[in-house]
Amino acid sequence: MGVDAKVTGDVSVAVIGCGMWGRNLVRTFAGLGHLGAVADADPVVAAATGEEHGVEARTVDEVVADDDIDAVVIATPARDHAELGLAALDHGKHIFVEKPLALTLLDAERVVARAEATDRVLMVGHLLQYHPAFLALRDLASRGELGALRYLYSNRLNLGRVRREENALWSFAPHDISMILALVGDEPVEVSAQGATFLSPGVPDVTTTHLRFAGGQQAHVFVSWLHPFKEQRLVVVGDRAMAVFDDTLGWEDKLRLYHHSVDLSGPVPTADRAEGITVPLARAEPLRLECEHFVECVRSRSRPRTDGSEGLRVLRVLARAEESLRGSPPSLPPSGVDGRDGIHPTAIIDEDVDIGPDTRVWHFSHLLSGTRIGAGCTIGQNVVVGPEVTVGDRCRVQNNVSLYQGVTLEEGVFCGPSAVFTNVHNPRADVSRKDELRPTLVRRGATIGANATIVCGHQIGAFAFVGAGAVVTADVAPHALVVGNPARPIGWMSHDGERLDSDLVCRRSGRRYEVVGGALRLVAEAIGSGGTGGVACS
Q1: Which listed CATH number (3.90.960.10, 3.40.630.30, 3.30.360.10, 3.30.1490.20) goes with 129-285+318-325?
Q2: Assuming Cys at both sites, which of 236, 440, 444, 481 could form a disulfide with 491, CB separation 3.0 to 4.6 Å?
Q3: Using N-to-C axis directions, what is the helix angle for 168-184 and 132-142, rounded to 10°?
Q4: 154-184: per-residue pLDDT in tens?
């Protein structure tokens, strides 16, 4: 038997799946002192793994039913991720799901909605978001060292690790898509992909995915398990500098910065190549950092860097790329209804509808007369807006949401899938009450969780957070976190969507708050943000 790795910390974690990657997770959580149990479809494998690390091998049912297990890590084949995640959440467990979160967008949305409804931590295993080199690259980009981002591309290539249950796109590309979306800070307006199949019918071995963003950035992701050598490289091109993250190199060369330039003054453009500059990195195992982050999120009940929403963003890109691979046209063509960019041809846009620049309207949605949609919004599939509804800039309205007359969304509002807004208190099919509409105002930055219901005549305060499945029957204060039926406040949320602990400090941004007279106030911006203290939250 190996070193006794029974739980010594305050969070007990069980790992389901002891295959090639699952063994790494078992080793890491054991080393951190948080491994409580292991499980695998093969009881012989589970028993050997448990014996090696000094913990008990259990069945999945035993793991999720054990009150002494706080969290479950799911490292099984991707086809089982959603089912196991839902089972663990239903038993009150926090979950860490290896990528991809699920193999269908619908299954992934169910898992995210269940995590919100049960108030459990959901983290997706996008490992490279925790790599010291990517963290340094993200910091360079956020500080403006690269300037405005122009083009990003990633190669993830190798010989082997051939799969049959998922193709090369789903197996290799999630990490790269996750990094690209994090750097750009938005989802693409257009996704197209091409691939080739040589080994197993219907399972592409090589794919190239192209992304185009509203801000003008473009990217591509090239993946293959039919390549003569291993390559794991992300290149980011900005208008001030270029950066290369090459994970196959040693720590001293993993991240390099290039201040190349191009002289356009002469008759022929001339490239001026500069020497690469090594970016110093804090050497640490990415998997250990990722597992530590999960444990800390469970301990503090805070939102992981790669949470369910981040996992959904990646899956939406994968799903659109898969559509393109199977011969469908790009999900959102450059020109849709009446030649307008970003409007899918199946969407219905009535007369007298104003749509701001860089706004996307997806499949089968209907915008009714008198509706005003701001700039940079996303209107998901099967959404109805109007008549005479106003949606502010940068709003995200997910699939199957209806915003009827009387509803107003200020800027930056997020409406989760299948959220419901009413506009009459006591509707009858045979009684017309169009003159009894009660207005609903959702203030800037607020979040409405999946399947929540907002009863009309109320106001959702700025940056408030309505949990999935909640039923709002009264006004919601700014920054309040409300859950249940009827919705009741259980805490406070920061501007960044992080649940605040008793110290009222946002773990993502460093902003510091205080509660005065039952209301949350911002008293200090993050260090280095240039903000001032004493700002009322509104």
Answers
A1: 3.30.360.10
A2: 481
A3: 40
A4: 999 998 777 776 788 988 999 999 999 999 9
